[in-house]
Amino acid sequence: MSKKINWSRIGEVLRQLVLSVKSPLFLTMLVLAFLMWYAQKLSYIYTTEVWVPVRIEGERYRVKCMIEARGTEIWAQRFAIGGRINIPLTELSPKQEANNPYYTITPSSISNAIMQRSGSMRVIDVLEIPEIAITHSEE
User: Fold this and answer.
1) CB of 31 within 8 A of CB of 24?
2) Residue 83 confidence class, pLDDT cut points 50, 70, 90
3) Would residue 139 count as lying in a domain?
4) Is residue 2 a part of any domain in this protein?
5) What are the beta bridge partners of residue 49?
6) Spatial separation of the C-alpha atoms in residues 19 and 13, rounded to whole Å
7) 116 and 77: one domain?
8) Cα 89 from chain centroid (whole Å)
9) What is the pLDDT of residues 18-56, one digit of tens each?
10) Is 118 helix (H, G, I), strand (E, B) or coil?
11) 44: CB partners within 8 A, 6+ apart
């Protein structure tokens, strides 16, 4: 169940908070200092788990990875600002097992493909590999 955010109520509470403070300039400077501190912290290198959106043979998937990157790149990846990464299936070295409707892909092949296309983001580990359905027979 998702809750809707009442932005008008939040704005009203913030306006009352600013008006109740004896020095709104102090509060403004405090907020600006926080934003500058946060922006400065985004230049550091962090390790975290993110869902990386990829497109394999035209199908959209999300791969859960442990990555190491700058805070700005992690932030952009979490909010999908960076866009999808297009990976051809042949580059992932897919293996087809008998009576299995999905390809088997190694974590190293998908992590190498993501790292080659994502700039300075380093994939430490692939935590969840998507199941890629076999749509046509290999000849």
Assistant:
1) no
2) low
3) no
4) no
5) 66
6) 10
7) yes
8) 21
9) 777 777 788 889 889 999 999 999 999 999 998 888 888
10) coil
11) 70, 71
